[in-house]
Batch of 4 targets.
Target 1
Amino acid sequence: MTISETPKLVRALQGDIFERPPVWFMRQAGRSLPEYHELRAQAPDFIAFCHNPEMAAEATLQPMRRFAFDAAIVFADILLLPRALGQEVWFETGEGPRLGALPSLEALEGEIGASTGRLSSVGETLQRVREVLEPERTLIGFAGGPWTVATYMIEGRGGERAAARTRAVEDPRMVDRLIAILVEATAHYLVMQVRTGAQVLQIFESWAENLAEDDFDRLVTQPHARLIARLRALGVDTPVIGFPRGAGALVEGYATAAGVRGVGLDVQAPAALGRRLQSHVTIQGALDPILLRAGGAALDRRIDTLIEQWSAGPYIFNLGHGVLPDTPVAHITQAVKRVTGR
């Protein structure tokens, strides 16, 4: 691929700098779009929806038809992986995910080889999307961060993660072994995604906050570094964006040690922190999803500020977390037009 043929978002991860950065939004596919709710109503449950390549591809493409995003992210869920490893996973309406009892570590290890095949529908979704997505628009694959997925597997649901954090202190060998299992299974899952069309990968470490520095290094930074090293050993050089949400000042050490080419920033990220990071990696994110939901002049001002403060380095415009379900579609249009100028 020549420079002119390489998608803008991929070029940003290679260090290119643009007056108007490439833009995509986490959770851009789904909850805020009326056409998504019409589509979702046709599936018996959320997991069946994620595993239906025709439906999942349609959900992935819906925001690309509405907005001038530079990238699509495959519609899936981070908890498809523990389900593929043999743990029961389901979604309670209005309450979120639930997981059954954690299988033995020996049982989980024995399912690593088969887990990727059980996720082949995600690969088919990527193939379907790549066939119709314009070549200048990037296709992003993703997985949950090992620590985040481990917290769900241990606790059986989302929440304060106190049980998982306590287990990490009281039984570190068990938690470290579980994370090692997830590193290996995730590596193979992401390799499959690349082989079926993903051009960029993102690791969503959604529960990286409230960890002491040594725990953050042990549970987040080092597992990410091992995951990326494993991807490279398996022959995949696809750029990876790491998003350790809530990392605060610890994100600087993460950026230099994890092996990622991009780092997602949450809404608290100061301008100076972003500029320091840009000497090592491409930065992404920081727009408050609540501000996106509110819209108006304040949204425009914040978008202008973010672009101005970080436009001298490699930058991808995004949110500091996902699009909120009740965000008006008009406000997403407003934000994307403000970034792209069209």
Target 2
Amino acid sequence: MNKEEKNKKIAQRRQATYKRHSSMICKTYEIKAVSSKLNSEQKQSLNQYFKEAKWLRNFHIAHGFDRNLRDIKEIEVKVGKTLENRSLSILGSQVKQDIFDNLISELRSLSSNKKQGNKVGKLKYKSVCNMLPLRQYGTTYKIDFYHNRIKVQNIKKPFYVKGLKQIPEEADITNAKLVRKASGLYFYITCYEKPKIKVITNRQIGIDFGIKDNLTLSDGLTFNIKVKENETIKRLSKKLNRTFIKYGKKYSRNHRKLKGKLKVAYEKLTNQKKDQTNKVVHFLLNNYDFIAMQDEMIANWHSGLFGKQVQHSSMGFIKAKLKNSSKVHVVETSFPSTQICPICGSLTKHPLNKRDYDCKACGYHHDSRDIKSAQSILDYVLMMS
């Protein structure tokens, strides 16, 4: 078989895979490596993996993204004020190509943002790399479901992991990412699954975001997510401030340890918010077929009078997840959902402490202005669709 025939067969297989995946659901599963099972050789190989990935990324940025250098085996690394030659001994060819492709993708994103009129900067050099792409299942990484192991290319001993039972047996496993966080090492594995039969509820709902109640539905249901900073974070923050000893650019060892512990505590806090967010979004998408919401400027609320209330909630997570669903219809920010009267259409401003609604024009009254606002959003979307 010559090279042309081989490339033709690869292209045909790729097209067949794309066609199969087009009718499937894409999901990503988080699998955690058990840190207590890592030996010194694995830790050393991992550190070298992430270090070489950082070198290669910075090398491509410095040399103008030359495609001919995608599979380079030796590069120059800046050490102090001099350049030293370092060999890429552990990075595989596919990982190298993925690092290059990710940089090109970042450049395209910057270019599209610039065309939209946004102010963008340049790609910056990284001092630390905490993510490695694993493109091909079976080559760059392999999974042993029976023994709960994941084998990464060029690392001798496989990783003992937890969470593989999440992945269904019939799932089509594709690429993955190896991510290093403060709380440990994680594999984010992308799979394609057959779609489940959707239950049609024929129910419609409007959603109003707010401070008193994070989410108010037009049928009267409310959701409040308040995950505050716990005592562990407060205690570590105080200790961190006390141990901050700065001499030029040097920091104490105790300060670095406390900083790592604080990162883990904040990561747990974020995970709690994401968990509650997923539960709320799952409830809404499973119980309603038509969802209307307003594109609220939640970032402005955070920078305004309600910084802590917004920070402790998950409204931004919920809004971002809902906007990705085909069931959700978004109303522009300028729509006066709180002020508009559903009877005569007049606008009546209310102070923040007034929680009911009274129309000055026709005398319409509603006991809850948040429920009235959610109903107005739903009515507006139905009228416009």
Target 3
Amino acid sequence: MIQVKSFVFNEFQENTYVIWDQSLACAIIDPGCSNLDERNQLRDFISVNQLKPSLLLNTHCHIDHILGNEFVYNTYQLPLHLHEGELFTYKDTDRWAAMFGLPKFTVPEKLVFLQAGNVIGFGSSQLEILSTPGHSIASLSFYHAASHQLFAGDVLFKDSIGRTDLPGGNFDVLAKSIREQIYTLPNQTIVYSGHGPATSVGYEKVNNSFVKI
């Protein structure tokens, strides 16, 4: 069983997740902390709960999901795990940063490229890596099968889906990802999205008007 702590960070109201198991090893997913207060929130939670950061994961590399990558990378000496296809998105963030008055971004030096269909572990837990493009070029979702929990980035939201009008977005590709990778998971699977509240596969299959089964 894994435990989940979510933080709502930055002006985009992005969900950052810290997940851990009984070993206290933890994974940090899409750190969006963008200022000193938010960075302290993340660091203090990890310290107070005596967690041991073991993985830094990006579902995708839109600007709101990578604002804290450098902080986590430097603080815990964790290489960044992502899909190689998202490097294009990452390197495009300087253009978006300029639009929002944010500093330029540096891609962390140590990278580990993830492949869909593989698993990645932390502590005694394993996450299955699912390919879920459509919102971005090569977005990944991370599924903990033992507890039926999915970390889906901006692919699927409660009653909604990720936008497809950004570079690399494609509605047909996104809908295919949702139908074939997410709607095929058990109905009780909790979906932790990149924005907004958690939902479930069963709920979305019945109620999501954007992508129907």
Target 4
Amino acid sequence: MNSTGYLRRPLAFSLLVFAAACLPAAVQAQSIDGLWDATVTVNNVSIPFRIELSGEGDKVSSYFFNGDEKVNPSTQGSFHDGLLDLKFASYATELKATLHDGTLTGSYGGGPRNAYSFQAKRHDPSLTAAADPPAPQIGGAWEIQVKSPKGESAWHFLVNQSGPRVSAAILRVDGDTGTLSGAYKDGKFILSHFTGERPVYVEVTPAADGTLQVAISSFHDTQTLTALRPEAARAKGLPPPDDPAQHTKVKNPNEPLHFSFPDLQGHVVSDGDARFRGKVVLINITGSWCPNCHDEAPFLEALYRRYHDQGLEIVALDFEPEDQLKDLSRPRAFIQRYGIDYTYLIAGQPRELNEKIPQADNLNAWPTTFFVGRDGLVHGVHTGFTSQASGAFDVELKRQIDNEVAQLLSAKAQTAGSGR
């Protein structure tokens, strides 16, 4: 190569660098890669959360965060001329926003009637670190006193604390809120959660009498409740949170639990079908709209894969709003997201739950699972499902379900037949 050849490459590279440096700042800033500090506004309350974006053109993806865990990835996304469009098929939701002067502004939801206003700016680590030390110590277990529509008198409030920073979860009979993350600021702990679903904003104020005032804002409502340590609640004679294994029962334990509903192809499947005879069957009340059902689905699929060859069947009875019953796009995406291989049936609308499952008593929560033995009879019912946010409760629940299934499978097949 001659001497001019050696000169051309560095000169060309320098020209490229110079040209890039001369581009307008607005053009250079069009990349959306990285972490963003975002909010959605729900019932006039601004709920902060983090979201991670990456890609360009028609290949944009995103993740929400449940604590430090990446969750709920987008299933489709694009970014053109400052317009961001992300779709989340398993929730049938969409995020649409415009980038202007470093701020994303738009909406998130399942349509104009169910959309939250959305805003996001580049993640600022100094905001994450901002807190007021020293903070009161509130770590550990609490019980929130409540009168819930499901008949509960108390919820678990589980708090992990490191200095002024807190991660927590409210655990109801139907499941938990996901991880509530935040810190101590201006005399109270400010916590929030949003992962594309179940938006929650919580202010926790320690009181002089050793209780906590817990102000909870969600898409349902806003309410301020009192939390006590479990021992203090028992000393006052207050009832504990509902036992998920006792909340729902069957009216006649000597009668099989019947079902007969179509699958996604329209083929009717019934409890009397030969495939269920002499098997252990988990009958799972679910819905693709239900966040706690999303928590449960991967666990059930893993359980099915582990025990199916030993005689386990799982039947999901999905109750969907009327708009989803028209094309079943969200249930299909739900099945695909979690790789569900067990039987999945479309049972009706949520308001029809007790009409469609008339043998159950106090059936009012998603999810709920009936444990049917080889004899065709219900041997137990469990209401709700936890996520990792519930810590030891989550570990124990999964252990109990695994043990119950193993015990039912150990029953000899010749005892079957009285129910199915």
